[in-house]
Amino acid sequence: MTLDYKGTSVFYTDQGQGTPIVLLHGFLENSTMWRYILPELIKTNRVITIDLLGHGQTGCLGYIHSMEVMAKTVHAVLNSLHIDKSIFIGHSMGGYVALAFAEQFPHKVLKLCLANSTCKEDSSERKKNRDRAILAVKKNYTIFVRLAVANLFTVENQSILEKEITFIKGEALKTPLQGIIAALEGMKIRLDQTAFFKKANFPKLMIIGRKDSVIEYKNQINEAIETNSTYVVFPDGHMSHIENKSLFLNKIMHFIE
């Protein structure tokens, strides 16, 4: 299904019945990332997946997709479906968007799970890395995307999950250049939301990868403690929903109950 939002087509799916769950994918991902847990979730809940701006089947809305703009797009989809309150699960960049949504519309959030994500803003070094990434993707789009996806997995899993990674690369290569750059620019300028997340009175869960190459796991544990969030540490990398599939599903099912 699609929604016209400010002249841009936004793709989403809406399945199942019960308390709504909103699934928000990460950078270079799209709604297909939820294909393993979706069949289980719709047995008990109404589940909405959304392709964020510039990803999947959703178009771009300018040259900088801030997390707040993406959150407003999510809000527009939920408004069109007459959904008031939801459980949010966001992976990586999807977590940033979920946080931005929760800060703008706190009364619409029942629970929030940050999966391999953080409420911290980019460090100065991370911002420089975003700029380097923009230059790299402009120079060679295909190489950038393939390397970016592979590096999200542990070295061991890059061979074990070769078939899965090939599929994810294929989906990532559908992301237009403008969408990639707009997301990188948006993530770079996002604000630190630690204070907000700490004060938030809805249930909070952080899923952490011990070998996450994007977010250092010890910092994540400290962040969970600082924000009074429940947390779980999985043994592998940034793609917990793939690398630790059964653990991920089990923890999510417990969280939504």
Verbal overview:
The chain has helices spanning 38-41, 67-80, 93-104, 124-139, 141-150, 155-160, 162-172, 177-188, 194-199, 217-226, 240-243, 245-256; strands spanning 2-5, 8-15, 20-24, 46-50, 86-91, 109-115, 204-209, 230-234. It has a single domain (2-256), classed as 3-Layer(aba) Sandwich (Rossmann fold). α10 links the parallel β7 and β8 (230-234). Strands 1-2-4-3-5-6-7-8 form an eight-stranded mixed sheet, with helices on both faces. The chain has 257 residues and is an alpha/beta fold. α2 (67-80) crosses α3 and α4 (124-139) packs antiparallel against α8 (177-188). This is Alpha/beta hydrolase. It comes from Bizionia argentinensis JUB59. Residues 20-244 form the AB hydrolase-1 domain. Keywords: Hydrolase.
